[in-house]
Amino acid sequence: MTLLEVEGLRVTYGGVVAVRDVSLSLAAGEVLAVLGANGAGKTTTLLAVSGLVRAKAGIIRFDGQSLAGRSPEAIARQGIAHVPAGRGIFPGLTVADNLRMGLYGSGRDRGVDARSAIDEVLDTFPILRERRNQPAGTMSGGQQQQLAIGRALVQRPRLLLLDEMSMGLAPSIVADLFGLVATLKAQGIAIVMVEQFVGQALKVADRAVVLEQGSVVAAGAPAELSSDDIAAAYLGGGGAPEVTVRPAPAGAREHLAVSVSGSEARRLHALAAAQGRPVDDVLGDLLAGALSGDNEPGRRSSR
Ligand SMILES: Nc1ncnc2c1ncn2[C@@H]1O[C@H](COP(=O)(O)OP(=O)(O)OP(=O)(O)O)[C@@H](O)[C@H]1O
Ligand SMILES: [Mg+2]
To answer: Which atom of ligand 1 is nearest to the CA of 47?
Structure first.
């Protein structure tokens, strides 16, 4: 049964067309990966589904009913929970209070049901139980992401929207989060996942869509996507998975987290400042030079 159906979605911000024409659908209990370069319209698509931005055109149906004109609160009550990019937790509030905030959105903030929903989340994330009286902002990035997901789960959603849950986290924590996605799927929760960690996302997803400049340029089961489709998903700096479904195509750009010493980092920043370029670019050139046996850092030609 189709749970979520998006047809011909168009969203604009002032004069900027962020989403031009996006259609996608998702069955109950399925995981859909939404991939694409920076600015492709992934976040905006999720925001439109949860009613946080208004669609200019197109249809969004959940459980067969149009969501047009509904408030974000009404949409949350229907069973859609959104974990925004950057997590959106309240750093000054305790872990427990952040979880309670999740309940307000769903309109189920009182009584036994509310307490048991929070208890279930604390069972899923033992670290949150341990830290429940600690201000959320004092936890590690991975713990804060668990809290952000936990806050969505207290709503007992049928559909979970995850926007870049792995952003800025260490590989082992990212692997745990992907494991959690698989567990939630096994519990019957449908998930739309925006991810820069393309390879890992494709491992857990039933289907994927690739967006480019606000339009869907590829869609299908992971095995059906061509290497060109996957390259489009990487362009603009995709995450570098240690687990890849297929190797990234040669033309694709991967975003790698590297560890360098403090003095090397300072020299790198000084070099980047001298060239007036982002550190990532300079490091990429140095690495490309080293790998091709040419040590001269040169300007990377634009794609
Ligand atoms: N509040 C806003 N006001 C104006 N333009 C916006 C706003 N939010 C997004 N945009 C523009 O809309 C387009 C799509 O942005 P969106 O954030 O949906 O992309 P994304 O695929 O999530 O990118 P990223 O990978 O960088 O998160 C971009 O061109 C972006 O600059
Ligand atoms: Mg985004």
So the answer is: 18
